[in-house]
Design a protein that fits this description.
Elements (H helix, E strand, L loop, with lengths): L2 H12 L8 H11 L5 E4 L5 E5 L6 E7 L4 E7 L5 E6 L11 E6 L2 E8 L8 H5 L8 E3 L5 H5 L7 E4 L4 E2 L4 E4 L2 H17 L7 E7 L7 H10 L3 E9 L8 H4 L8 E6 L4 H13 L4 E6 L6 H6 L6 E9 L7 E4 H16 L10
Parallel strand pairs: 3-12, 3-13, 13-16, 14-15
Antiparallel strand pairs: 1-2, 2-12, 4-5, 4-9, 6-7, 6-9, 7-8, 10-11, 11-17, 14-16
């Protein structure tokens, strides 16, 4: 991955975008794809849609959600301490001692998440699970009035963790789920813009996936595609305390994570396998016995139904501040999707 492309990935991952508050990251995404697409559309929901070859009859959608998990301010007490609830789902124990960035209309506000010191806890308190009600955000305010000069009820926040490189082309970020997928969509559009296409391609950075696949539901209805691919992350099983008998054998650096199951159109998936084999693109397979909790589920059930596939990025430590992925997997997924779409005929019957 060249430096310019990685800098875009870094900027996208570091820009806060909790579900419902994606606009700043969406602008980063749009700025990257504009000039490479024939049309660039935003909607009232916040989805960003880049379109190539819009006059073609057959429409193919590619999505990756640009929202991330986060917190939202629900209460400020008389002493200026801030209480929150989750946007999306995470283990509250992971929040203790974290730094946070609060996204306020007055600008970003820095804070820290506090909890009673372990020295002050009784033995039974130390064994209890951490609850959101027992932790708070401290911005240094001396009173509620002081805090309200800087933040407001309903302001979102994210854990303040930078994008960093690890060994072996691995990177860590709080938000690879799934801004890494939105990154893939942007790069697919950029690279396909240099190829001759037989079909219309709509690349979408969807919103509000973490709270119910909401952006994929609305954008796929608007695009009305014939077929599509959703890009998301999936659990890597190559770290301690994972059970490959339950989640499958899925390694960082092992290539695109392809899927088989009810959420996946078998004809479309077979063609993707053929493309991967033809171009010697590495992949690994995961079984999906039911609908997935990804954009693929919303797209498949849009209108009268859409032929859809899911391609996942192996991800360690999902929904934590230290999600880890491989840049090699991103490159392989981009190449696979680009080669598949570039060779797609002007029409294909995906009916079973």
């Amino acid at each position: 991955m060249n430096k310019t492309t990685e800098n875009f990935l870094k900027k996208l991952l570091e820009t806060p975008s909790p579900s419902g508050f994606e606009l700043t990251a969406a602008k980063v995404w749009r700025d990257h794809v504009k000039g490479h697409v024939d049309e660039l559309i935003s909607d009232v929901h916040g989805n960003s849609i880049g379109i190539l070859n819009p006059k073609a009859k057959f429409k193919f959608i590619v999505t990756g959600h640009i929202d991330e998990i986060g917190l939202i301010i629900t209460h400020i007490d008389d002493k200026g301490f801030i209480y929150t609830q989750q946007i999306g789902g995470m283990d509250p124990a992971l929040l203790i001692g974290q730094r946070v960035r609060i996204i306020s209309e007055k600008g970003e506000v820095f804070g820290v998440i506090g909890r009673k010191a372990i020295h002050q806890m009784k033995p039974d308190e130390r064994k209890k699970n951490v609850e959101m009600e027992n932790i708070w955000v401290d911005i240094g305010a001396d009173s509620k009035e002081d805090a309200l000069k800087r933040v407001a009820i309903g302001d979102p926040m994210v854990v303040d963790v930078e994008y960093r490189r690890l060994a072996g082309n691995k990177v860590v970020s709080r938000a690879t789920d799934d801004k890494a997928g939105a990154f893939v969509v942007a790069e697919v559009l950029r690279r396909l813009s240099k190829r001759e296409l037989n079909i219309c391609v709509a690349g979408v950075a969807t919103v509000q996936e973490e709270i119910g696949l909401r952006g994929a539901t609305t954008s796929s209805y608007s695009v009305n595609p014939d077929a599509g691919i959703a890009i998301d992350v999936n659990f890597a099983s190559d770290h301690p305390e994972t059970d490959i008998k339950k989640i499958g054998d899925n390694k960082l650096g092992g290539g695109a994570n392809l899927h088989r199951g009810a959420n996946i159109n078998p004809i479309l998936q077979k063609e993707i396998f053929k493309t991967a084999d033809k171009h010697k693109i590495p992949y690994q397979i995961t079984a999906q016995p039911r609908g997935t909790g990804t954009d693929a589920n919303a797209i498949q059930l849009c209108r009268g139904g859409v032929a859809v596939s899911l391609i996942s990025i192996p991800n360690r430590y999902m929904h934590t501040p230290v999600e880890v992925i491989s840049l090699d997997d991103l490159e392989n997924i981009i190449t696979l999707i680009v080669e598949f779409i570039a060779a797609h005929p002007a029409d294909r019957d995906y009916r079973l």
